[in-house]
Structure formats: structure tokens, C-alpha cells
TrEMBL record:
InterPro entries: DUF2155. This is DUF2155 domain-containing protein. It comes from Tistrella mobilis.
């Protein structure tokens, strides 16, 4: 509904890399700020909680800028 704030959500792919073992994917899925337990990361070391969303506009690139003659 328009009167409700938009849902903060994030799709995560979390990989764990150690010197003694190959890279292991420990989480792959969506997390929602309003329902952190819905699809939680179950790991004894890491605890990830989405708390907010920041929408940043991309930085303008220098590729289209005019180059000085000479």
C-alpha cells in the first residue's frame, strides 16, 4: 500500500574463505529488514542483519568528458 514505507531487502551471496579450506558458500538468498528471522544466516561466526537501504546515484564517468587538444 502507498501509505506504508517500502520494504528494505537485500539479496546476499556470502562466501567464507580460509587458508586451510576451499571457498565455501555459507549463504545465498534474500533477507528482509522487517523479518530478519525469515531467511536468516545460520553460522556460528557471522551474523548479518539488513537494517536499511541507501540508494546512491552512480558517479559520472570521465569517459565522455572532452579532452584538451594538443
Amino acid at each position: 500500500p502507498p501509505e506504508q514505507a517500502p520494504e528494505a531487502r537485500v539479496f546476499l551471496e556470502v562466501q567464507q574463505t580460509t587458508a586451510s579450506a576451499p571457498t565455501e558458500r555459507i549463504f545465498d538468498g534474500w533477507m528482509f529488514a522487517s523479518s530478519p528471522g525469515l531467511n536468516a544466516l545460520d553460522n556460528p561466526i557471522y551474523d548479518i542483519w539488513p537494517i536499511s537501504c541507501v540508494d546512491k546515484a552512480p558517479e559520472p564517468s570521465d569517459e565522455g568528458a572532452a579532452k584538451p587538444a594538443g
